Every structure is written in structure tokens, then in C-alpha cells.
Amino acid sequence: MIADWMSGLLDPFNYPFFVKGLVVATLAGALCGLIGVYITLRGMSYIGHGLSHAIFGGFAASSIIGLNYFIGAGVWGLASALAINRVTRNRRIGADAAIGVITTASFALGVALLTRYGNKGIAFDTALFGSILGIDASDIWALVAVTALTVAVVFTNYRALLFATFDPDVADVSGVSVARLDALLMLVLSLAILATLTIIGVTLVAATLVIPAVVARMLTDRFSMMLRLSTLLGAGSGFVGMYLSYYLNVPSGTTIVLTGATVFALVLLITGGRRLYRVAGLDHNEAGAPTPVPTPS
Amino acid sequence: MTLNAADDVLVTISGATFGYDGLPVLSHVDLSIAATDFIGVVGPSGSGKTSLLRLLLGTVRPQHGSITRRRNTAVAYVPQLETVNWNFPVTVSECVLMSRTKRALPWASRDERAEVARLLDRLGIGELGNRHIRDLSGGQQQRMFIARALLRRPQLLLLDEPTSGIDVASRHDMLHLLGELNDEGVAILITTHDLNGVAAHMPRLVALNKTVIASGTPRQVITPTVLERTFGAPMEVLEHLGMLVVLDSYAADSGKASA
């Protein structure tokens, strides 16, 4: 009986598409978990959500004109991210309003274009919710490249990124180029969303950015540990979620997110909610808004 | 080697005017900071204290006038505690180390770890390196930020209200610590609202309200005339055991010293 059970568990490994999907989902989860630490600590969770929707507009446009969607949606997403960052820094309107206008309009444009002209690339459902079947070699290479770039950015700018995330104004006067780091973070965020588009889907990617980081924050008070834990939790959610996707026959994005949400609920249960206060401060800094002094006296 | 007077000056502000959206915040400000200075800047809310810090830090430029810094002058800044996200996941050591951004590797070198340990010991929080920043008292949090600033080995240290939100004993310790740092060769400029607890103990004071109203020793600056011009309210100045004590008119009427 145990042998049958084990055989059932190992059965999906007979299918190359599943193995490929499992590797990609694990890598995508780790990538989102890593970037998610910076996104959540900067109070930019909503940017991840909005940006994924903005990228959908670029995905639709590139699909219609026959442009490689990595290029089309990438440029579109980066432009949206920089626009949000700029509008937010000007402080004329809030970050939430800027994201609401720019990204939702882009998403609406994408839906309108695809409805009107039909798509010639990735299926509509795959772009929205992710799919185990939507992975090809180019997806894998793109994901590997983006992951390598992100790790390199985090590795070589570790302290400057930490300083700019914790204390942007003081970092700015301490020789850290906060504007450059903001742009760099927006670039890797856009690329990460793009590279995980077919696995997780635009509507669910925000959760893979936020959940591992929030759970990691509940488990540690140390930044370096939070980075490691969030990456591991993201990878674990990707692995288990993709596995469940095969058995439950539902889009991979949904099972990856539900796995992460289950881990969040478990940690909440085990800690009795005592560590929720740590998460409460995550939105202390509004996206891009320089909070700590000096402000005009 | 002795420095001549010109070499000794770290920053000179000459006739600086600065404002936001056309509204002047500072007007015709003249101020020079020498390498040995320990300066307190006093003034009411909206007097331009923080804008003066911004000018000194170089985050804003004067619309008129000029600022001259001595070449290679390292300036470090300590923010107000009220502005910090205390739920941010960093330990004291991580917080101090973040200001050493030149190293390309994420982890601290052996020399850096030793330097941070020395600094934390020097500031009296040596055993707290692995604590989360929220778990420190107000005075310890202030010392942590001073350690972060000192790791940059500054010649000029700017502190925004460093005694705000900490108890009396910690305030005394803080002033003593800043005095020691000054003796070791770090020029210090702090802003403060606290006339009796802080300003009266400074070697040099600057009274600011849009412009420099007066500059000099506490006895030259803490006078009824200067205080009224600076704060816009009549104040009395008494002397008690050789110390200056400021009473505002309301407190004087009811027999209480102003804070």
C-alpha cells in the first residue's frame, strides 16, 4: 500500500513537462520571495499587484503586433514602474492613487486589445492565472537570467538596499544613490513579474511577492534571516503548489498562492497572532515617500 | 600640525536664502562651523532648523547665497527617533553596519565586526548588538544611530533633536557623550527646543528664526531680547547656581520654569 502511495507521488515525475514546471515554479517562488522582502518592507505590496496588471497591457499589445512578449511587456512594465515611482515621489497624489490610475488603465487596455483583436501568443487564462502547460524553454532561460540578475543586484547592493529601504532620506545623505536603487528595484521587479507571468499569472503574482515576506517577518527580527527565510518559503510554496496543481488539475498560480496562504495561517496559529504587530509596521513607509526627516521645519 | 583659521572651518554659509514653493524658510543666513565646534541651534517650530540641516547636508541648495565646504569633509546625520519605523526587521549591529555601503559583499568583514563592536562598546550599548532595534530604550536607540553615523568617520555630525523623547538621565548622558566626541575632534551641530535642559549647556548657540537672530555663548544668546525675537514671546532669564534658567511669561506668572 505504501509502495502504491509512493508510486502515486512519484508518478508525475515521469512527465518531463511536470519536472520542468516544478523546477520553474520553485525558482519563480524563490525569486518572488527574495524581491518580496524589499517590496513589502517599503510598503510597496500594492505596486507588485498593480505592476503585474500593467504588464498585462504590454503583454496584450506585444501579442497583437507579434513582438516578443518579454520585450514588449518588459518595456511596458518598466515604464509603468518608473512612472509610478516618479508620480509617488512628487507627492502630489498618493502611491495608491498613482498605481490605481496607471496600472488599472494598462490592464483595461490589455483586456480591450485582446478582446478586440484576439491574441497570438500565450493564452489569456495562462497570462491571468498561470499554467503548468504554459512553460517552454525560453521561459526557463528567462527565469534563470532574471533570478541571476536579481541575486547579483541584491548581493552587490546589499547594505545600500537595506539602508535605502529602512531610512531612505538618511541613506541619501550618506552617499547612497537612493534614486538609482529605486530604479534598479523597479527593474528587477518588472522583470521578475514578467518571467513568472506564465507560471503564476498576473492576477496572483502579488501574493507570491507578499506572502513569503510577511511570513518570514513573523518568524524573525533579523533582516538577513528574513531574506533567506522568505526566499526558502517562496521556493517551498512554488514546489508544493506546482505539485498540487498537477493533482488538483487547477492553474498553478492558484495552488502556489494557496500553499503560501496556508503556511501564513499555520504560522499565525502557532504564534497565536502574537507576532502580527511585526507585520503591522510594514507599511510605515509609503511607496517611495521619503519618511524620515529632514522635512521642512 | 596646527591648522590655520581657514583650514579649521568645515562649512561656511554666506547670505543663504532658501524656501519651498516661493515661501521663504531661511533668509540671509550666515553661519560658519569650525572643526572644533559644538553648536546648538534653537528656534521655534517652523523657524527653519531642519531646512538649515538640509542645507548643511547638501540635500537642498540655497536659492541665493552660497555654501562652502572644506574639501573631503565627511558629514553624518542622526535623524529624529519619531521618524523611524521601529518594526523594521534589523538588529542593532545590522543597523549600524548599513552605513558602510562601500563593501561589495553583504556580510561584515572581521575588521568591520570589530569596529562595530568597539563603537557600540564606546557608546555603552556593546551588549545590545544582536537585539532588535525596537527592544532598546530611547537613549539607546539614539546611541545606535550615533554609532551608525560614526561608522562613516565624520568630521561633522548633525543631529536633529537628539534629546527629544528621552528621559532626563539619558539626556545628560547624551550631552556628555556628544561633548566627548567633540573633544575627540568631531564637530557637532544639534537642533533643540529645550532651552533649559540642552541649549544652556552648549558651548555655542545659534538662535534661529528664518535668519540667525544671534550667535555666541549661551550668555550672549539666552537673553530676554534675543529669546523674544526668536520665539515671538516674552521670556525671563534667571540665574540659578551659575546656570541660566529661562521662564516664559506664562510660567513666570504662575511660578513655573519653561521646558
Strand-helix topology:
The complex is a heterodimer of chains A (297) and B (259).
Chain A: H1 2-10, H2 16-41, H3 45-65, H4 69-90, H5 95-117, H6 124-129, H7 137-156, H8 158-166, H9 168-172, H10 178-195, H11 197-200, H12 205-219, H13 223-248, H14 252-270, H15 276-280
Chain B: H1 5-8, E1 9-20, E2 23-34, E3 38-42, H2 49-57, E4 64-69, E5 75-78, H3 92-97, H4 110-122, H5 138-150, E6 156-160, H6 168-183, E7 187-192, E8 204-209, E9 211-216, H7 218-221, H8 224-231, E10 235-240, E11 243-248, H9 249-254
Model description:
The complex is a heterodimer of chains A (297) and B (259). In chain A, helix 7 (137-156) packs antiparallel against helix 10 (178-195) and helix 12 (205-219) runs parallel beside helix 14. Chain A has 15 helices and no strands. The longest helix of chain A has 26 residues, at 16-41. By secondary structure, chain A is mostly helical. Chain A starts with a helix and ends in a 17-residue tail after the last helix. In chain B, 42% of the residues are buried. The longest helix of chain B has 16 residues, at 168-183. Helices cover 31% and strands 29% of the residues of chain B. In chain B, helix 5 (138-150) packs parallel to helix 6 (168-183). Residues 1-5 of chain B have low confidence and may be disordered. Chain B contains 9 helices and 11 strands. Chain B has 259 residues and is α/β, with parallel strands linked by helices.
